[in-house]
Specification:
single chain, 70 residues, alpha+beta, two-stranded antiparallel sheet, 1 helix, globular
């Protein structure tokens, strides 16, 4: 897991994900810190963009592949 550079002993936590233009999303902001919970669940019906959101988080951490479907 990634670590916060300001405090090497503390795990990194995503608070907000801005999806400017990714998969089915344009200008969407997901607030992962809303409610103050330590765990954020993303759920929805089929084709709602859950897998695209997961790919966006992976691309954020590891870079966008040159040949991306998104």
């Amino acid at each position: 897991a990634g670590r916060d550079r300001r405090d090497p002993g503390r795990p990194m936590r995503l608070l907000r994900l801005h999806l400017q233009a990714f998969g089915p999303f344009t200008g969407r902001i997901l607030d992962l810190a809303r409610g103050g919970a330590r765990l954020a669940l993303i759920y929805g019906p089929n084709e709602a963009g859950k897998s695209a959101t997961l790919r966006a988080i992976g691309d954020l951490r590891f870079g966008v592949p040159q040949l991306s479907a998104d």
